[in-house]
Amino acid sequence: MATLDEDRTLLVLDDADCRRLLAGQGVGRLGFSDGALPAIIPVSYFLRGDDVLIPADQRNPVVAAVRRAVVVFEVGVLDPVSRSGWSVSAVGPSRVITDPRAIAAIDAGGLALGPPAPSRCYISVQPGLLRGWRMGPPWDGHDSTWAAHSAAG
User: Fold this and answer.
1) SUPFAM superfamilies from the xrefs (predicted)?
2) Please, which of 18, 54, 57, 78 could form a disulfide with 132 given CB 3.0 to 4.6 Å?
3) Residue spans per domain, the chain
4) Please, what CATH class does the domain formed by 9-144 belong to?
């Protein structure tokens, strides 16, 4: 698939590649609607099963904005010099986990990040739609270096 850059190719990633790349980061971007306007913020995260868990403080206005909303979570790596990279986005409903027992269970998994209890909560994004793309130089099927680099993430 072509991009707007004539010398770049955009490849669609399969579900397995999307999940592998999503699991390998730790920092991503959360997109949501804030007062009917789009907003995107950087966040720390980890995966629990298929869910993206984002540590937060219950008093943060972002928590109220994403509660029971459909959001997008995105991770990616872009190299401005080579104009190549990849991006994975997960779109789905979010919920805010505030129950102390649920938070303790998450924290007990050794994954606790963010503000200390009792103000800690977790924003959970349940991916319903997972999409990924990789952009790089045109690949003619013969350049194994690009193919190996592309597959490595």
Assistant:
1) FMN-binding split barrel (SSF50475)
2) 18
3) 9-144
4) mainly beta
